[in-house]
Amino acid sequence: MTESEVQQTSTPNSKIKKFRKRIFHPITKKNKDEQQTSLLQEKKNKTEKPIRNEDYEATGFVIDPQDHLYQYWLGIISLAISYNFLLIPARYAFTELDKNYRYIWISLDYISDFIYLIDIFLQSRTGYFSHGLFVRNHHVLQRNYFLSRQFFVYDLLSIIPTDFLYFIPTFRFVSIIRSNRFIRVNRLSQFQELTESRTRFPNAFRIGVLSCLTLTLIHWNCCAYFLICEHLGFGSDEWVLPASAHNETVAMLYTYCFYWSTLLLSTIGDVPLPVTRSEYLFVLFDYMIGILIFATIIGNLGTMISTQNQSRQQVREKMDEIKRYMKFRSVNRKLESKVIKWLDYLYMNRQVLNEEMVLNS
């Protein structure tokens, strides 16, 4: 055979090989994935413990997450978390506030820690549904909770006794060392979701939550502004607090800082221009946070308004369909007016138009 004939015979063979590879490779890969999935499922079935009837029997004190007592407890733990979120930054920034009421703050700190500990116990006794049945065995609940990510990532880290650092002179009664209490914020979100699903006024509750979140951010920014002013020195330039701030009360200083923070985060402006680089960076960061807050508020309000108007919009669409139908059937004006009034009556009395019931009657 000549060289040209060899090339002609090899070319179809190579094409056939490529075609086979392109056709059969995905099938082989799919079968391989199915085999791996089946092996993983077999391993999972071997490692999972069999379901026992004893797991669903009540063996002690167990909390039902659908009960109102569970919601009340979430409200109590939310108060403790909110206390830490608001007072720890304020006490760290305004040292006079911490010194004047130190014994009160220490008492409230340990009360909140005690609430955190009770919350760990109650979470270990909170039942859950498994395979359609409610697990009430407290031994099973405790084992699952203390081996869960919730305990190690959130609850355990948030209760580490960092107060022992008070014995070090550098950290003597510095409240910021208790910032690990912020980690329990997931319980605050659980309370929000549960209350929002059960309240009769969900939109008003959402507005209240959004307002509290905005005020908390303004409060944190207020404390940060005071710390920066104290670090740069009162009266060092026009952007920071004046030199007379040393003689002002804590209430007056906090009021001015809160006012300044509100102006900046609301993007209203009307504040002294920054001078140093750190001041410029802080103002730019505040403007970015303010834009996000403004966008979040507008988005949430738009969602609430659209939700409120959704039922009315459905009635309008149904009314337009009925009007078109009556026009197509040449219904007289008097009957058309009666039908429209009847639809308005249904909407005003929060009743739903059931077409099947009307047709059957």
TrEMBL record:
Annotated keywords: Ion channel, Ion transport, Ligand-gated ion channel, Membrane, Transmembrane, Transmembrane helix, Transport
Keyword Methyltransferase among record annotations: no
Transmembrane segments: 70-90, 102-122, 151-174, 207-228, 280-302
Topology relative to the membrane: Multi-pass membrane protein
SUPFAM superfamilies membership: cAMP-binding domain-like, Voltage-gated potassium channels
Gene Ontology cellular-component annotations: intracellular cyclic nucleotide activated cation channel complex; plasma membrane
InterPro entries per record: CNG_cation_channel (IPR050866), cNMP-bd_dom_sf (IPR018490), Ion_trans_dom (IPR005821)
Domain Ion transport, residue spans: 70-312
Pfam families for this protein: Ion_trans
A GO term, aspect molecular function: cGMP binding
Subcellular location: Membrane
Main location, first listed in the record: membrane
Presence of keyword Disulfide bond: no
Stated name of the protein: Ion transport domain-containing protein
Source organism of the structure: Adineta steineri
